[in-house]
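Morning, I've got a small favour to ask if you have a moment. You're getting the sequence in one-letter code plus the fold written as tokens. Thanks so much in advance, here it is:

===
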Amino acid sequence: MPRVSVIVPSFNHAPFLRECLDSVLDQQGIELELIVVDDGSTDGSLDLLRGYGGRIVLMQQQGGRQARARNLALTVARGEF
């Protein structure tokens, strides 16, 4: 079974995060690694993300934007895809 790394950069997306993450985590037939990089959210996103515990890899940065968030996540990604 292939291992897939999914990277989700997030900044103040609390209203949409649960639906996004649950959709990714519901995938079948693959070994999944979900990496979320929070970019200093102030809307409660971080609390929501912490609620996923070990089901996600949570990383944080401040004001780095999406490209930096993706690059940061790639430093820990272990998937083949």
